[in-house]
UniProtKB/TrEMBL annotation:
<dbReference type="InterPro" id="IPR011701">
    <property type="entry name" value="MFS"/>
</dbReference>
<protein>
    <submittedName>
        <fullName>MFS transporter</fullName>
    </submittedName>
</protein>
<keyword id="KW-0812">Transmembrane</keyword>
<keyword id="KW-1133">Transmembrane helix</keyword>
<feature type="transmembrane region" description="Helical">
    <location>
        <begin position="137"/>
        <end position="161"/>
    </location>
</feature>
<dbReference type="Pfam" id="PF07690">
    <property type="entry name" value="MFS_1"/>
</dbReference>
<feature type="transmembrane region" description="Helical">
    <location>
        <begin position="343"/>
        <end position="361"/>
    </location>
</feature>
<feature type="transmembrane region" description="Helical">
    <location>
        <begin position="254"/>
        <end position="273"/>
    </location>
</feature>
<dbReference type="InterPro" id="IPR036259">
    <property type="entry name" value="MFS_trans_sf"/>
</dbReference>
<feature type="transmembrane region" description="Helical">
    <location>
        <begin position="167"/>
        <end position="188"/>
    </location>
</feature>
<feature type="transmembrane region" description="Helical">
    <location>
        <begin position="373"/>
        <end position="395"/>
    </location>
</feature>
<feature type="transmembrane region" description="Helical">
    <location>
        <begin position="305"/>
        <end position="322"/>
    </location>
</feature>
<feature type="transmembrane region" description="Helical">
    <location>
        <begin position="48"/>
        <end position="67"/>
    </location>
</feature>
<feature type="transmembrane region" description="Helical">
    <location>
        <begin position="282"/>
        <end position="299"/>
    </location>
</feature>
<keyword id="KW-0472">Membrane</keyword>
<feature type="transmembrane region" description="Helical">
    <location>
        <begin position="218"/>
        <end position="242"/>
    </location>
</feature>
<feature type="transmembrane region" description="Helical">
    <location>
        <begin position="79"/>
        <end position="97"/>
    </location>
</feature>
Length: 422
């Protein structure tokens, strides 16, 4: 029997290092993204922001299933570090370019490679939790990303006027390289996770097997409409909400404070989702979190009072945090370990597709259209919540599956040492 390194079972240091460095890398990503958005805005082309977002989303949307199949078949430890290094290289080259579209092409390539690195990181997470429950580990990852999204945009917008886009892209290349170095150190302490069967394997069969593993879970199928509609809704709001909130806030400072309320709420929600009381209630986290988000976006569209929108955003952010943790928990609980890479890649594909749809739909034709588009976004999210609620109720009645507790999927003879104790 292979002896498992003691640090993996007794130390939380690898997980904490991963949370900290990943959060720093997200700040770098936000710096790069903000630099490109502000560059587009400065050129006076309103649709350039949408084109930038689509250029990142569409290649990832098309290639995500193939990336997930590769992670399922090969060693995610090697994929993680190598792909992060390639991402850093693409972003670094982009920093040296002067042409806007050349930068977009390089960042799109980095985003495609990110499918492999993020799917590998997700598949490896149970090996890096040490004594921490996987639900709390997911919660910590969500807290770290929420903090990064709170700090990143405001810091990036301020720095852009001082240093410009090239240096901000260079910072992103540096933070990604730091994450790559961290990944290389962390994977030395873990064994390879379970992989897909090597016999007669090919890429297209791997894509098919990954989709089959997802489709075979009735609970994942029941929540799929909600996941799609929530992501479309938030993407519509992300575009239309910029115009609407700036219109009613009256100042950039108040606008920034209102936006920060959502990020603060998401930190609180992500923490609560990792508690022992709420962590097992996966469907409550997903559906209840979606409901909070839907109501917050509706409140944004139906009122013109910034302080009311700010309070609604705290609640919506809490729902966002619990929803994100719930989705991560559901994948680990419902998908066999050999296909968690594909599951995360397909989720990324859904995210990219929904973002593309939301950005196209949410771009106002005139500034006066912004409020109505925000209301449409809230209704869209609310429809997703209702569909998921009905689907889960029917599933419970027909199959007697509780909606508050999800039974973990069979792990295909997975190593029992990956089960994390309290």
């Amino acid at each position: 029997m292979t002896r498992i390194p003691t640090i993996r079972r007794t130390s939380a240091v690898p997980l904490i290092a991963l949370v900290v460095i990943s959060s720093l890398s997200i700040v770098g990503d936000e710096a790069a993204s903000m630099s490109m958005v502000l560059t587009a805005v400065n050129q006076g082309q309103t649709w350039m922001v949408t084109w930038f977002s689509l250029a990142l989303a569409i290649p990832a949307m098309i290639l995500a299933p193939f990336g997930g199949a590769i992670v399922d078949r090969y060693d995610p430890r090697k994929i993680w570090g190598v792909c992060l290094a390639l991402q850093s290289l693409c972003i670094g080259i982009a920093a040296l370019q002067d042409d806007f579209w050349s930068r977009i092409a390089l960042l799109a390539a980095s985003n495609v490679i990110n499918i492999l690195s993020s799917s590998a990181a997700f598949a490896l997470l149970p090996k890096l939790t040490g004594p921490i429950r996987i639900e709390r580990a997911n919660s910590l990852m969500a807290i770290g990303s929420s903090l990064a999204y709170l700090v990143g945009p405001a810091l990036s917008a301020w720095i852009f006027g001082i240093v410009g886009a090239s240096l901000m892209l260079g910072v992103n290349a540096g933070t990604t390289a730091l994450l790559a170095a961290t990944a290389l150190v962390l994977v030395l302490r873990v064994e390879r996770p379970e992989s897909a069967e090597p016999e007669s394997w090919n890429l297209f069969n791997g894509v098919r097997d990954g989709w089959r593993a997802i489709r075979s879970s009735a609970i994942v199928a029941a929540t799929m409409p909600l996941l799609i509609l929530i992501m479309i809704s938030t993407s519509i709001e992300a575009v239309a909400g910029v115009f609407w909130l700036r219109q009613i806030s009256g100042s950039d400072t108040l606008y920034g404070l209102v936006l920060s309320c959502w990020a603060v709420g998401s930190i609180i929600g992500a923490y609560l989702a990792g508690t022992k009381r709420l962590a097992p209630r996966t469907m409550l986290l997903i559906v209840g979190g979606g409901l909070c988000m839907a109501l917050a976006i509706l409140a944004e569209g139906l009122t013109t009072i910034a302080i009311i929108i700010g309070m609604a955003f705290v609640i919506g952010g809490m729902g966002n945090g619990t929803h994100n943790v719930g989705v991560r928990n559901m994948i680990f609980q419902q998908i066999p370990q050999a296909h968690t890479g594909s599951a995360w890649a397909y989720y990324r594909m859904l995210t990219s597709t929904s973002v593309a749809i939301g950005y196209i739909v949410g771009t106002p034709r005139t500034p006066g259209d912004a409020q109505s588009m925000v209301i449409v976004a809230g209704v869209c999210a609310l429809v997703g919540v209702l569909v998921a609620f009905v689907a889960l109720r029917l599933l419970r009645l027909h199959r007697r599956i509780p909606t508050s507790h999800v039974t973990p999927a069979p792990r295909d003879d997975a190593d029992q040492s990956t089960v994390v104790s309290n």
